[in-house]
Amino acid sequence: MAERLSLITQSPVAMASSLSSAASSRLLSSTSTAAKLSLSSLSSSASSRSFSSSLKCLRTSTLISHHLPNLKRSSVVVRNGGLSTVASPKSAASDPDQLKSAREDIKELLKSTFCHPILVRLGWHDSGTYNKNIEEWPQRGGANGSLRFEVELKHAANAGLVNALKLIQSIKEKYSAVTYADLFQLASATAIEEAGGPKIPMKYGRVDVSGPEQCPEEGRLPDAGPPSPADHLREVFYRMGLNDKDIVALSGAHTLGRSRPERSGWGKPETKYTKDGPGAPGGQSWTAQWLKFDNSYFKDIKERRDEDLLVLPTDAVLFEDPSFKVYAEKYAEDQELFFKDYAEAHAKLSNLGAKFDPPEGIVIADGPTGATPEKFVAAKYSSGKVRELSETMKQKIRAEYQAVGGSPDKPLQSNYFLNIMIVIAVLAILTSLLGN
């Protein structure tokens, strides 16, 4: 499921106590073949032609986090041998405006590099280390930005994720008030949505860990070919606090991406669906349209008619285990249900283990923030003697206003209400005159 759920998060951060070029080199060679597939499949599509050969040159842009006496966090940026210290914001929480701008930049990145799968994997692998049985942060793991450090990037399940970090590094440098933990999850959710998937109900404000000593130990991410796939999936995802429905729904993200044998040990070198890219060609995908998020993963796994489509042991078990099969069958038939359950599971996964500042998190709007609707004040729409209307008449006016779609907090979009008010005002004046 590592391939399937390739919980992807890698960051080119060589956290060594010395800044020698040897330390940078070690980061480059840290992408050992993964025995654990965790959505590495997704990662393969992320390697565009311009990035596939750049694993060896991380030293040109490596971020190294340090703990300084008077700052919560600072970074040393290494560029072509030169060092410059960049202070991070005093607050650990991300800035909402920068989050919105970063999201737009991620959308542009997706359009040019087709890196949807590896960005999904990046977010998953940062959060998928969570252990619900450990209360302390950051020992419990989860979405805390730890994947940016070399020690965690070297975990076998994270092979190739250095490419994801290279892809988003310029965005991180541009928006310094966005934490790595938030950026990883923002990139993951945006990739799903831009690939045609559901809107993920995300919140932000995750706090970053400060150093490599706070990274989780290796072995918390799922394998693709364990001896007992169903038991293994439950062991890993139950540890995170997820259930069978979440496991099956999240597996559906394998509708995106490819598995590369040189990274994971699984899949063909290339197929008729992957030999021409986009991005770096090669690998084996789970679906024919592996950059489109839909429910075809479940359909293809169920039918298993195409030898060019990948089926891992942790994929096949979804239709073999009685509990998993209930959900897999539903998702194969009902894409709307799959999208609903997937969005809930993805949001849940993205919050695992995170420490939020503010505690309730930050929700960023989808579009530009509009002006606050004008409050309804009955007297504002009247003149002359009408200003002296009784409370009963004001209530009647309010009822008429609401009957045509208005409310105290939401004025009508047309002059229809104003016309009604004029008529009512005239009638009120006439009534008053006749009464007298």
TrEMBL record:
Residues 119-394 form the Plant heme peroxidase family profile domain. It is found in: Plastid, Chloroplast. GO terms for biological process: cellular response to oxidative stress; hydrogen peroxide catabolic process; response to reactive oxygen species. Its EC number is 1.11.1.11. GO terms for cellular component: chloroplast. CDD domains: ascorbate_peroxidase. Gene3D superfamilies: 1.10.520.10, Peroxidase, domain 2 (1.10.420.10). Its cofactor is heme b. The chain crosses the membrane at residues 416-435. Keywords: Calcium, Chloroplast, Heme, Hydrogen peroxide, Iron, Membrane, Metal-binding, Oxidoreductase, Peroxidase, Plastid, Potassium, Transit peptide, Transmembrane, Transmembrane helix. GO terms for molecular function: heme binding; L-ascorbate peroxidase activity; metal ion binding. It catalyses: L-ascorbate + H2O2 = L-dehydroascorbate + 2 H2O. SUPFAM superfamilies: Heme-dependent peroxidases. Residues 254-285 are annotated as: Disordered. Residues 259-275 have a biased composition (Basic and acidic residues). Its main location: plastid. Belongs to the peroxidase family. Ascorbate peroxidase subfamily. Plays a key role in hydrogen peroxide removal. This is L-ascorbate peroxidase. It comes from Acer yangbiense.
